[in-house]
Specification:
single chain; mainly alpha
Length: 94
Amino acid sequence: IPVRYCIIEHIRMKYGCRTCDTIIMAPKPKAPLPKAIAGPSLLTDVILNKYQYHLPLYRQSKIMKSYGINVLDKTLANWVTGCGEGLLKIYEAI
């Protein structure tokens, strides 16, 4: 099966009360990295390609661009750093 990237879009409805002027909205789903568009499977793919298959981030960026996804290699580096910080907390707890 060839590599396939897909976008998962979460639609959150917003409801407002005109009498009490309040807005109610469903909570945003938890993300592995705050303010990142990448989900857990994409982050795992980037980290495995970098460390297991020795594929540099700039090449991963070019591969994603060939699929129509424009992600800078600096963004990929920030994702790897964020995942490393999260995994460091788990390592220290063990």
